[in-house]
Amino acid sequence: MHAARKIIAVVAVGAAALLSACSSSGSGGAGGAGKSSAASGGPSLPDLKGTTFTILGQWTGAEQQAFQAVIDAFDKKTGATGQYQAAAGGNQAGVLATKVQGGTPPDIAMLALPGAISQYAKAGNAKPVDPAVSDAVAANYAKVWTDLATVDGKLYGVPFDASNKSTVWYNVKAFQNAGISSPPQTWQDFLKDGATLSASGVPVPISIGGGDGWTLTDWFENVYIRTAGLDDYDKLTHHEIKWTDPTVVEALTVLKQLFGDKTLVGNPDDALKVSFPQSVDNVFKANPTSAIVYEGSFVATTITGDKLPAKVGTDAKFFPFPSVNGSKAALVGGGDFAVAFTTNKAVQPFLQFLASPQAVEALLSSPGSGFLSANKNVPASAYPDATSAELAKQIVDVGDNFRFDMSDQAPATFGGTPNQGEWADLQQFLRTGDVQATAAKLEQDASAATGW
């Protein structure tokens, strides 16, 4: 998910949990999605002239404009009127909880956390999708995306946008000046290139945004999925193994090779004062002090949004998070799912449309949003530039080896709150490098959290 939405999104599961005793009544008449797809123009959709429906989200600015293009395309095809509602203050979790509890839910809500989908489904607030919608999702997305939004055997969410959080961004000129001809593919080469950059005069080769604890959870997850593998990643995500497990200790030990090397990341106390946006600025400002920053695909929109002089795709490029000890391809990321909360007759057709390549193409036709999609039938030509197309291609190509951000699926008190839980524990790890103490504290905090 985009960095600016991280803190807001992680409280969604908790807000949904408060509604476990609530149930919402549908508005409008029940209606099914179309049963077939047109050969080239997308799914066959019903005539919905005179039908109005609402979609609650937290997108604003360029993102809202892009999503409005999707709504407009659907309205043009069906005669319906879709009304997008941006959550006040960006607090979508709170707004949705209040609306559901008050019996006036939106017809559709865009949810960034699988846990929130599960909570609302189990509470009887969310509505399962129709078979035509389920078929459309299966035809356009890898199974892992269906699994993320399936509760008790029923699909409740339609995947829409996605983020690639297994990307490492670098200053092309700094690499050239250091004599690095190609990006590293392995962890050891990554560390070696960092040392080369240091020797070439780069003050802090790898910029760490340690002031925002969530960036450190992303570092850990990308190392862990490569050292422990997919199965243990899934188990740790749901606290089915302890944070003192040898796989966690191994990942922390690997991560310490970076965090504990001051020639690569500078003084830990200084790194802990750097926010995520500042970590990007350090690499791509006019007089950069760093050459590499790890974070997701949203680094590109941070570069353009902060009006940095570096041009994405020319001065600022990325490479996949390096393999560790010959690890198989895997990708950590996030995304948003469209979830029905009423039986308004436009809801299921709109969900079916969202699952189609045509909806994504409408989304991408609006410039500047930075959106990506895991829809495997969207052509590369739909993306505004080669960088965006490659970021999306990696999400699609990895298939079922995609895993959703681990901390985003944890209880908010552990995986999503500043100055406590995993965020604070990994910040302390950056400061001290104490592997065993960090693993023990992570397990202590995970065990104290409720909502697993």
List the helices and strands and how they pair.
Elements: H1 6-10, H2 12-17, E1 37-38, E2 42-43, E3 52-57, H3 61-78, E4 81-86, H4 92-101, E5 108-111, H5 114-122, H6 131-140, H7 143-148, E6 150-151, E7 154-155, E8 157-164, E9 167-171, H8 172-178, H9 187-199, E10 206-207, H10 213-227, H11 230-237, H12 246-259, H13 262-265, H14 268-271, H15 276-284, E11 292-294, H16 299-305, E12 316-320, E13 331-340, H17 347-354, H18 357-364, H19 386-398, E14 402-404, H20 406-409, H21 412-415, H22 421-432, H23 435-448
Parallel strand pairs: 3-4, 3-5, 10-11, 13-14
Antiparallel strand pairs: 1-2, 5-13, 6-7, 8-13, 9-11, 9-12
Helix pairs in contact: 3-18, 6-17, 10-12, 10-22, 12-23, 22-23
Structure, described:
It contains 23 helices and 14 strands. The protein is 46% helix and 13% strand. The protein has helices at residues 6-10, 12-17, 61-78, 92-101, 114-122, 131-140, 143-148, 172-178, 187-199, 213-227, 230-237, 246-259, 262-265, 268-271, 276-284, 299-305, 347-354, 357-364, 386-398, 406-409, 412-415, 421-432, 435-448; strands spanning 37-38, 42-43, 52-57, 81-86, 108-111, 150-151, 154-155, 157-164, 167-171, 206-207, 292-294, 316-320, 331-340, 402-404. By secondary structure, the protein is an alpha/beta fold. The protein folds into two domains: 3-24 and 36-164 and 333-406, Periplasmic binding protein-like II (D-Maltodextrin-Binding Protein, domain 2); 168-329 and 418-448, 3-Layer(aba) Sandwich (D-Maltodextrin-Binding Protein, domain 2). Strands 3, 4, 5, 8, 13 and 14 form a six-stranded mixed sheet that branches. A four-stranded mixed sheet has the order 10-11-9-12. A hairpin with a 2-residue loop joins strand 6 (150-151) and strand 7. Helix 6 packs parallel to helix 17, helix 10 packs across helix 22 (421-432) and helix 22 runs antiparallel to helix 23 (435-448).
